[in-house]
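ARCHIVE CARD
Drawer: 12
Card no.: 0347
Subject: one protein chain, sequence and derived structure
Cross-reference: see card 0346
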Amino acid sequence: MRELILLAALLAAGPASAAVPSIAPDDGRQWLAGDHHVHSEWSVDWDRSTTPPTPIRGGDSSYTRSRNAVQAQAFGLRWVVHTDHGGPGHSAVTRDHAYPALLQARADVPGLIQFNGMEFDVPAGEHASLIIAPGPDERDQLVTVEREFSRGEPLVEGSRDTQQDMLAALSHLGTLSPLPLMLINHPSRTATGVGQWGEVTPQELRSWHDAAPQVLVGMEGAPGHQATRDERGLYRNGAAPTFGGFDQMTATVGGVWDQMLAEGRRFWVTASSDSHVNQRDGGSDFDPGEYSKTYVWARPVADDVLDGLRGGRTFAVTGDLIDALDLQVQADDGSGPVGRMGDTLPMKRGARMRVQLRVHQPTVANAVGQRPALQHLQLIVGSPGDGGPQMLTRRFTAADWQRDGQWYSVTWTLPVPANGGFVRARGSNTAEPTPLADLKGEDPWQDLWFYANPVFIDTVPR
């Protein structure tokens, strides 16, 4: 019966994406699409008439982990993280039910890299995707973290919800081997306005990153729940919406993300589905890979996918606007090394640098049968300043770029930032130079963006 269900889901999902092109150098790495935030039937509801509360299977999602894996592969994903919600005593659900379901999903869909994880109810915050490295201890590591540190695990709500609790959790995660990885989910969903923060603040992001910079490495730039046209990302406060489907911390040039990058923080952005219930079944979500993808430059093995996520060799995209990207920074005269996403490139103060962005559009239609056209590309350069990051941007349209088949290429030559800094990129199928606030009723498939993680510049004397 399970095999029939898996086959039916695969057929319903439509064709998978075509092979994604590689970029030099050739070290066996390629662009691998994935999703780090996916829910299943083990995101349970709770019968609170009992003590302790009794878990109700399928409370937040009726999908099995195998079904989610099938859908992920059908929509072109190469890796996925299963991240179910917690709650009072949920660590036992993780141990006794969710982990065996992960093993079953791996057996059912062996071609998909599947990570053990959870949507961590972080103390003093909201939620994060916690990704555990595969290995013999992967079950017990996750169970221990949930049992000892999850905000939702205790029977008494609020008893484990302080900054000190969060720092203790990060300290513990930093002792695990191999190192796990954490990404803050929908960081501005509880914000009350633009720049008016809710349960996740810039100060908290900084302190959490300081505590475990190799564990807590980024945040969802594009939150999930994008299928609802009323509240993209379920950002319910109209004064604090998403912008082009991306969180305001990411979408605002010179905003929170750029401020952290200008401080030299290796802090990355991603995109995910946060899949609970697909819109076809009456929900507000897309399946894994149906709309949002995080591409990682990695070999198709779990440890290198984690290494790519940890090292910033990633870009986030919606609607299959692009499926490969190469962002390069080099001295204008062609001398010295080339820096790519996640790299730190030493460059001489007072010299000039050449920034080149190449992106590739897919050769097949996306999940709704469209092949969205690029309208513009942007290169963004930031550097530290007294009143916040100093930002330079340059926008390119079809009149500016070179095209080779499905590859689009632009180049910008400019002075090396005197105090160092970073270079990043984004682009869209819209004509908006800056993404506009998302409005009720808009079609997410007509408002697509990609965001590339940065190359850092470290200036040295001439």
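Annotation on reverse: Residues 3-17 have pLDDT under 50 and may be disordered. The radius of gyration is 21 Å.
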